[in-house]
Write a structure and sequence with these properties.
The complex is a heterodimer of chains A (about 130) and B (about 375). Chain A is of the alpha+beta class. In chain A, about 25% of the residues lie in helices and about 40% in strands. Chain A has a five-stranded mixed barrel. In chain A, a hairpin with a 4-residue loop joins strand 1 and strand 2. Chain A is globular. The two termini of chain A are about 30 Å apart. Chain B has twelve helices and ten strands. The longest helix of chain B has 18 residues. In chain B, the strands form four sheets. In chain B, strands 2, 3, 4 and 6 form a four-stranded antiparallel β-sheet that branches. A two-stranded antiparallel ribbon of chain B has the order 1-5. In chain B, strands 7-8 form a two-stranded antiparallel ribbon. Chain B is globular. The relative contact order of chain B is 0.17. The chains are: A alpha+beta (about 130), B alpha+beta (about 375). At the A-B interface, strand 1, strand 2 and strand 3 of A face helix 2, strand 3, helix 7 and helix 8 of B.
Chain lengths: ~130, ~375
């Protein structure tokens, strides 16, 4: 995208708005996660991740999420706190609905234990067909 | 003359006018899009400098890399063109059907060179191939001409060409690939990457080991962290200005104007359509509205649908995203006459050989090509050699 482009200003405004919305939205849930994970109880920094689930380990309580830019791909390990629900459309499910290949959007906080999911939305299931 | 033939001739005339740019002068390889503003033209020229800049370990190169400059691979016949380098990609198709790009093990791109500091630290000369890899792929460096126009094609235009269930029973069932976040992919041989900007940002890291604001972390070394002291330059190693200039250079590269068609070539262009090649190599796409006027609402004669098609088991290599090992994006044919090797792996050395290596969904069109009388086959090749 060119420098000093009006798109950049618009994109910046959208990003700022999204960040503000995320901060407002996550305030409530973030505090619950923070209370559970961080000893201090301070609200951890928030991060939004959208990626593909590469691996799940429900016993250990984490998923490995595939993210990245172009062909520079990265794996992020995200902890799933007990009681976390996964939003699937208008419904909520247990994290067991997550499987390798699922595309998810996560809102996460950062704690000493690592990256912790506070909200998970299932966007796409493996092999989901395009609508003709 | 039958009305259908008249219509085809009229269409070919319209195409020829559009493709050769009868109004604007023809564009040669490496030239910018016609209609750029002076400021855009300035960024194109400044971006070319970054594109051709040879990096060193002191300026951020490595510690793993495939080339020290974008222009080292994209060089023939000019900056932004194709290259003779062949790189290595690996992935793992797991038993549960998930395509693992082995990102945690250094994949999917396995770098073939290391800096002296990394060699001294680990004694390696290239990145190790993960043991988990189930397939390897050779990948050539394509030319980048016209990629800005492909980036500006609206998603709905691409999706409108998809026919995953082959509902029209033509034997061709193009389907889109998806990036890890679910967005429509269109760049790369497996149509994995959604945007040109992301393709360029990722390429700096995987090809040169140059971190940038969008990708501020280096590749791992087969999944292991970089040894201390081996890559001392702070991240990002390329600033936003230079990243954006490089992106502008690639985005503003014009597709080379096709050569004027003689009667034989014109005949070949029509045969190309009638034998079914145009089912995947869709002659033209239309860009949407774009802030850059030179990219806005333009017809690009790219001869691709930017969708995945099954090319048959003999061409199969790696999976990537939702693409199976045998699925590949229809390769754009802009600048085809400038290429010295063909197909995603460079296996074919001539256009005719490339056609004969088409399988899967393309097998029927290939067979029709092979059954053509020699003079009609020659006409098709004459047309393709004009692109």
């Amino acid at each position: 995208m060119p420098m000093n482009d009006p798109r950049r200003t618009l994109a910046g405004a959208i990003r700022a708005g999204a960040l503000l919305a995320a901060l407002l939205e996550c305030g409530a849930f973030g505090s619950a996660v923070a209370a559970a994970v961080t000893p201090s109880g301070a609200a951890p920094p928030l991060e939004r991740l959208t990626g593909t689930v590469a691996a799940v380990d429900f016993r250990a309580g984490h998923v490995d999420l595939l993210t990245g830019v172009g062909h520079a791909l990265r794996v992020r390990r995200v902890l799933l706190p007990a009681g976390l629900k996964v939003r699937v459309g208008a419904a909520e499910s247990a994290p067991a609905v997550l499987a390798p290949g699922c595309v998810v959007r996560m809102e996460c906080g950062h704690t000493r234990a690592g990256t912790v999911a506070s909200k998970v939305t299932l966007l796409r299931t493996p092999g989901q067909r395009e609508k003709p | 003359m039958r009305p259908a033939v008249q219509a085809l001739l009229l269409l070919s005339l319209v195409n020829a006018v559009g493709a050769t740019g009868a109004c604007p002068p023809p564009t040669r390889p490496g030239e910018p899009l016609p209609g750029l503003t002076p400021a855009e033209r300035e960024r194109f020229e400044a971006g070319r400098e970054v594109f051709e800049r040879a990096f060193t370990p002191e300026t951020g190169l490595g510690p793993l890399f495939n080339a020290d400059a974008c222009g080292e691979c994209h060089e023939d016949p000019v900056a932004g063109g194709a290259g003779d380098e062949v790189e290595l990609h690996v992935t793992a198709l797991r038993p549960d059907g998930f395509c693992d790009p082995l990102a945690g093990k250094g994949g999917p791109v396995i770098q073939q060179a290391v800096t002296p500091a990394l060699k001294a630290a680990l004694g390696i000369e290239s990145e190790p191939v993960p043991a988990e890899a189930t397939a390897r792929a050779a990948r050539t460096a394509p030319d980048l001409f016209g990629f800005g126009l492909l980036d500006a094609v609206p998603e709905r235009a691409i999706l409108a060409l998809a026919d995953p269930e082959d509902r029209n029973h033509d034997g061709i069932s193009g389907r889109p690939n998806r990036f890890v976040d679910g967005r429509l992919g269109r760049f790369g041989r497996k149509a994995f990457v959604p945007t040109l900007a992301e393709f360029n940002q990722g390429a700096f890291v995987i090809e040169q080991g140059i971190t940038n604001p969008a990708v501020p972390t280096e590749e791992s070394i087969g999944g292991e962290p970089i040894p201390p002291g081996v890559d001392p330059l702070p991240e990002p190693e390329l600033d936003e200005r230079d990243m954006n200039l490089t992106d502008d250079f690639v985005r503003f590269l014009a597709p080379p104007s096709p050569l004027p068609l003689d009667r034989e070539g014109e005949r070949g262009r029509i045969i190309f359509g009638t034998i079914g090649c145009g089912g995947c190599h869709v002659p033209s796409l239309r860009t949407g509205r774009h802030p850059v006027r030179a990219l806005s609402e333009k017809t690009v004669f790219a001869y691709t649908d930017l969708l995945l098609h099954d090319m048959g088991p003999e061409r199969a290599d790696i999976c990537l995203g939702e693409a199976s090992p045998s699925e590949f994006r229809t390769e754009p044919l802009m600048g085809l006459r400038l290429m010295k090797s063909f197909l995603h792996d460079g296996k074919a050395t001539t256009i005719e050989e490339a056609i004969r290596l088409h399988g899967g969904e393309a097998a029927a069109a290939r067979k029709r090509f092979e059954k053509l009388p020699p003079e009609r086959r020659a006409a098709v090749l004459r047309f393709l050699e004009s692109l």
